[in-house]
Amino acid sequence: xxxxxxxxxxxxxxxxxxxxxxxxxxxxxxxxxxxxxxxxxxxxxxxxxxxxxxxxxxxxxxxxxxxxxxxxxxxxxxxxxxxxxxxxxxxxxxxxxxxxxxxxxxxxxxxxxxxxxxxxxxxxxxxxxxxxxxxxxxxxxxxxxxxxxxxxxxxxxxxxxxxxxxxxxxxxxxxxxxxxxxxxxxxxxxx
Length: 191
What we know:
By secondary structure, this protein is mostly helical. It contains 6 helices and 2 strands, in the order αββααααα. Helices cover about 75% and strands about 5% of the residues.
């Protein structure tokens, strides 16, 4: 990430905390299918919360690593770290209609991370002191997507206000998704 060191470290802490929370839910949450909110009206859509928690946890830790060590790591390493999961998520979304939107969102995130890493390493200069090169149109489209996602997930977080049990069951995962959406937006802004 190309920006002030303090911002990079704050973003790393935020996304690592979000990723850690998502991965901690793997231990605590039972591995039972639950009905997806988006699929309730669309038929028998089912999902495993573990799949979502694993994807979000890994994305959070990956964003933290990229925020701190982005340009210091060769772009090919980041491409191999994020490219195959993006392809797998795209294939999973194409094969199974349940959780398609969620898998596509994670695929877009993985592809955006690959794009940012390759753009950072393609820029001349040394790590952390040069702007990343990339396609302004693609960067703008990704900014619009993640900005819209952050607004949407933030509105869901605010509309889901209720008792303490409601916040613990739905609020914290939504807050993690919101923080990762904001993190992606912030990382793209530095390009």
